[in-house]
Amino acid sequence: MSSEYNVTETLDVKGLSCPMPIVKTKQAIDDVEAGGVLEVVSTDSGSMSDIQGWAEGTDGVELLDQVEGDELYTHYVKKTA
Q: What angle do CA 81, 7, 25 make, to 5 degrees?
């Protein structure tokens, strides 16, 4: 759990490649209550641009941050509506 964000749910999509991280993120964010933060953990480097593009084009979500680690990419998506 991130100390910076009050994560309400974590989605593990490690080992999945495009488009599955986005598909799973979309499904998971639907179950998050408004104001909640979904932490998405991926091993797909393409998820950095994919999730950013999805969040920018999707009403009701806000991409708070993305963290690139050693072969691990973590995204924090807030449900705003």
A: 60
